[in-house]
Amino acid sequence: MSAIPPASAETIDTSKPHPARVYDWFLGGKDNYPVDEELGRQIESLEPQTKYCAQHNRWFMRRATRHLAEAAGIRQFLDIGSGIPTEPNLHRIAQSAAPEARVVYVDNDPIVLAHAEALLTGTPEGATEFLEADARDPDAILEQAEGVLDFSRPIALSLVALMHFISDDDGAYDIVERLMAALAPGSHLVVSQMAGDFDPERTRQAVEMYKAGGVTLVPRSRAEVERFFAGFELVDPGIAWLPDWHPELGVDEVRNGTPVPLYAGVGRKR
Fold first, then answer.
1. 188-232 pLDDT per residue, tens
2. DSSP annotation string for 132-185
């Protein structure tokens, strides 16, 4: 399977912010537009530690991937809502531990697609592919990913900083259930999710800011995050605050002790 061709500039909607580009701005990237920066600055004015929290999401992805590739022996990864490339990417982490690892990235933002080529430089022993698909269409994702991944063997499904952009009305739990149902026993689910029970008033204001920018934001409580893992075996320490999920696996992480109001969890399908 070949990569999706880069999208043309004409297909990029710069009239409203996109979560991947706002996230890129939080991380100090340059692949965003004034409308993304505007929303990012509004959120930062409400919560000055937002950029720090975004960095923690990246750090969690790296720690979880390192754990799965090294301790759990996972050799296949499906990363949905991959976002704009930020080194080291998931496949760099996975293939540094296991050069034969196969990684599929999925996103639906044209500017992310335009950077797909940068994502596709992996090890010769492994595979790295990029698919254009919407997270709300799990069947399309699974159909395309079958060209790269062996669904008879365990796969790690990575949904990092994604599910808080998908509402219950859009079938958030059904999407995760459908994706995991297609994966073999021994597969893992990786989720980070904005907390709805940390600072309810500030969270409400953040939801309103995103809504004004045309972006859905759905914070969830610990119990609501646990629901994504129903029937799975949670990896210790279970559902935890982002910085508390296996901090010993971190490399070059700089922490200042500031609370990070996002939950993290990794679960194994029996």
1. 999 999 999 998 998 999 999 889 888 899 999 999 999 999 999
2. E--TT-HHHHHHHHTTTS-TTS--EEEEET-GGGS-TTTTHHHHHHHHHHTSPT
Measured in residues, the chain has a length of: 270
Assess whether the previous peptide bond of 237 is cis (omega < 30° from 0).
yes
- Picking from 162, 165, 257, 151, the residue whose alpha carbon sits closest to that of residue 206 is 165
Encode pLDDT of 125-183 as tens digits. 999 999 999 999 999 999 999 999 999 999 999 999 999 999 999 999 999 999 999 99
Are 195 and 262 contacting, i.e. CB atoms less than 8 angstroms apart?
Answer: yes
178 contacts: CB under 8 Å, gap ≥ 6: 138, 139, 142
pTM: 0.90
Least confident of 66-70, 72-76, 111-115, 165-169: 111-115
What top-level class would CATH report for the domain 11-244+260-268?
Answer: alpha beta
The CB density around residue 13, as the number of other CB atoms within 10 Å, is: 13
Write down the domain spans for the chain: 11-244+260-268
How many Cα atoms occupy the beta-carbon half-sphere of 144 within 13 Å? 21
Separation CA 66–CA 14 (nearest Å) = 35
